[in-house]
Amino acid sequence: MATNVSHVDVEAAERTEKEKSRKYPSKLPETADPPVTHDRGSTLFSEREGHNLKFENIVMKTKSRDSKKKPPKEILKSISGHVPPRRVTAIMGPSGSGKTSLLKVLTGRAGKKSFDLSGKIKFDGRLVDPTDIEVRRELAYVEQEVSIPATSTPREAIRFSARLRLDRSVTHDEIESLVNEILKELGLEGCADTMIGGGVMMSGGLSGGEKKRTQLGVELVTKPDILILDEPTSGLDSYGAETIINVCQRIAQAGASLLLTIHQPPPTVVRKLDHLILLLDGRLMYDGSLGPQLNDYFAAKGFAKPDDYNIADWILTVAQVTPIPDLEEAGFFQEDAKKIKNEDIYDSQLEEKNGARKLLVHHVGLSTEIRLLFGREMKRLRRDKLAVTVRVLSTGFFGLFYGLIYLNIGTTDLSDPLNLQAEFGAIANILISTMFGVAQSALLDFPKDRPVFLREYSTNHYSVLPYFLAKLSIECTVTFLQALVQLVASYFLMALRMRFVVFLAINFVLGITSTSMGIVIGSMVEDPNVAAELMPVLIVPQLLFSGFFISIDLIPEFLRWAQYLCSLTYAIRLSSYFEFGDCTEESCQQLLARNQVIELDTFWYWIILIAITTGFRLAGMIILRGKANF
Ligand SMILES: Nc1ncnc2c1ncn2[C@@H]1O[C@H](COP(=O)(O)OP(=O)(O)OP(=O)(O)O)[C@@H](O)[C@H]1O
After folding, report:
1. What gap in Å lies between CA 473 and CA 379, rounded to an integer?
2. What is the CA radius of gyration of the chain?
3. Cα→Cα distances 496→407, 427, 503, 571, 595, Å
4. FRET partner for 497 with CA separation of 20 to 30 A, picked from 202, 308, 455, 482?
């Protein structure tokens, strides 16, 4: 009897367990292998070794200086999941659920400075640090925002990426055939040679969908093992979305692990997705197959899909409409229970310890990097004709204006203090105009270039040095042109005493120093509007320490050190020396003394100008590098 009772009890218990597990299945359905159709002959879709990407207990919190006043926000709350190879995995979830944040963590782009991060990321069981450049070679990330130079065409952007990121043994013909293939597969052949566009001053331009596909193409050149895309279909019509998903599907079928975030995909797109990671409020609701099992899973938890819903719409409706306690009660968020001791997520030692596979890519040399970057910058200059023309013409206009205002000032009698002051003013105005013109362009242009640099630098296109050298050479060209146009328009009208080439050289060096300062501020801020607001910070101290408005002697001693950072001060001293150095009038000597112009020091004035340029360039490089090391 006792046996029977216990037998009945066991059966009853098993039945209850089965019913419970049917109602709230504890194991998420695994994604079945989709049919594999390889394009073995193709290079873009060539067979590759994807990774089983796993993430465990990912926690992401904002950092807060004063946690009492502003408690840290928990964006990802101990999320675990996986992205299998040969599948297209979609991350879905309501807006603000943490989709982009999770991608940033997985790709090593969640800044440690802004967030507290913990958890583990594994490729086929080995711990990896996605901020490591070797790991990034295995993983490509296509961001939501398009960051490709506006003056490049899709063909050039993809070719540029291929030349800099593929092994140096890859031939020109191989690169061209890969570029053509990517353009064809992404439906970009029709606009392959059209400028990306987008600038206010630029005509033409690609559609949003074409830009997104170009950005995808740029990342496809490395034939990544893991491809991660943030909202690749947002803002696209269903044809554009399908084109992208089709390419993603074929890349996954070639072996890659494909992960993308997507908002309310249409049924045609849902059919191409294999695996789903569903997030809600920074928590994992589901990690498993997107097949019929997903229907069963939701049905078993009491949320059976009505016939008139497609599955993606239904699960998002459930996530958005159902109160979180009810979802908890139904048994979603089961991974929350598995909170274990977390480890630093971006530990650069991890890879070493776990013997990661090193991809042997012999990168192109420094000279090729500089040549390609320089070529791109030159094209930018040629194509952005309107901006360059406006820049040079406005300089010419100001030159002419000053020339007419100070007409023949260099022929006047310097014994008259008024003439002397006017001639000094003429020189100072030309120099201020040079400084203002070039610094403004650098300050406003640089924040626009910044996202391009950050993407390319973090994806191993080139290092900081060639980028800065290429930029410097272009800036030298434009600054020289600007200085030349301004002086041709003003110097002869003013009939200045110093030699033309000397004044041109002073203006040129001052211009380059000013761009360096503009770059430091430009590299610190993201928004060109903020950069414009910071313009006075760059200009006003220069004016005050120039000796034009107040003699340096009259500035309080504790502030005088700042003159050593002001390039305009030294440009004015040099120009004053060459303009008035031969003048024996007492007023001339007094002016030189007031501005601390000492004949023996003129060599040092040049050196200080060059040192200021070098110092600011280095500071710009360090700041940008720091920003790129997320
Ligand atoms: N730097 C930050 N500081 C504070 N909160 C942040 C920061 N970055 C993201 N968040 C917050 O984290 C949450 C998740 O943001 P995330 O961009 O990952 O969501 P999402 O699911 O991608 O949203 P969407 O679908 O609208 O793009 C949001 O509430 C967002 O406001």
Report:
1. 13
2. 32
3. 10, 9, 9, 16, 19
4. 482
Q: Encoding tokens for residue 615?
A: 């110092």
To test the pocket of ligand 1, the residue of 100, 229, 259, 263 to mutate (highest count of ligand atoms within 8 Å of its CB) is 100
Ligand 1: distance of its center to the CA of 321 in Å?
A: 19
Please count the CA atoms within 13 angstroms of the CA of 167 that sit on its side-chain side: 8
Q: Which fold has domain 53-338?
A: Rossmann fold (3.40.50)
CA 280, 236, 88, 307 torsion-angle sign:
positive
* 427 CB-near residues (< 8 Å, 6+ apart): 496, 503, 572, 575, 576, 579
pLDDT tens digits for range 419-467: 999 999 999 999 999 988 888 877 777 778 888 988 898 888 888 889 9
Centre of ligand 1 to C-alpha 99, Å, is 8
Q: Which residue has the tokens 């990306």?
A: 196
What are the pocket residues of ligand 1 if the criterion is a CB atom closer than 6 Å to any ligand atom?
A: 62, 73, 75, 93, 95-101, 114
pLDDT of 66 reads 76
Q: Is 86 left (phi over 0), alpha (psi -120 to 50) or beta?
A: left
Average pLDDT rounded to a whole number, residues 492-503: 96
pLDDT in tens, 331-372: 888 654 444 333 444 543 344 434 444 445 577 888 899 999
The confidence score (pLDDT) of residue 458 equals 81
The reported pLDDT for the residue numbered 203 is 53
User: Higher confidence at residue 26 or residue 506?
Assistant: 506
- Cβ-count burial of 389 within 10 angstroms (0-12 exposed, 13-18 middle, 19+ buried)? exposed
Query: For residue 286, how many other CB atoms are within 10 A of its CB?
Result: 26
**How confident is the model over 527-554, as a mean pLDDT?**
81
Tokens of 392: 């040079």
Structure confidence at residue 363 (pLDDT): 74
DSSP state string for 502-546: HHHHHHHHHHHHHHHHHHHHHHH-S-HHHHHHTHHHHHHHHHHTS
- Helices and strands (H, E) in the chain, number of each type: 22, 10
Closest atom of ligand 1 to CA, residue 104: 18
Residue nearest to atom 8 of ligand 1 (CA): 101
Mean pLDDT throughout 227-242? 86
Q: Is this complex scored with an ipTM above 0.95?
A: yes
From ligand 1's centre to the CA of 52, what distance in Å? 26
Q: Beta strand pairing status for 115-123 and 226-229?
A: unpaired
Pick from 140, 162, 160, 136: which is nearest to 148 by CA?
A: 160
Residue 62 has what DSSP assignment? E
Ligand 1: which of 101, 144, 230, 284 to mutate, most ligand atoms within 8 Å of CB?
101
Q: CA-to-CA distance for 93 and 327, rounded, in angstroms?
A: 14
Tokens of 60: 């992401």
CA distances from 583 to 320, 571, 598 (A): 82, 19, 14
434-to-274, 447, 506, 581 alpha-carbon distances in Å: 60, 21, 10, 23
d(CA 218, CA 143): 11
Compute the distance from residue 76 Cα to the ligand 1 centre, in Å. 10
